[in-house]
Fold this sequence. Notes:
5 strands
Amino acid sequence: MEEWSKEQWEAAIQSGEKAAFYLYTPMCGTCAVASKMLSVIEQLLPQLQIGKANINFLEQIAYEHQIESVPCLLVTDGWKVTDKIYAFQSVPFLYELLKNQLTEHY
Length: 106
């Protein structure tokens, strides 16, 4: 999963394509588990743009999207954020959610 800057996230939104932006902090244990889960999702859904970023360096994004905690996954349908996920639950849960997001609008 590629580390994204604020500009790369904005470019993903502007592209109009489905994308997911994973926000974490390095010292968060739950984030480490979520990262591994998203690595699997990235293999299962290669057509989905997935980026990640340390939220400590993206204060503006945290403020704009009212991020309450990490890990957090922002999901966009292209042009706007449609989901903000805090409870990653399981790989099957994330897979279904993101797969449905991909097929829902195509």
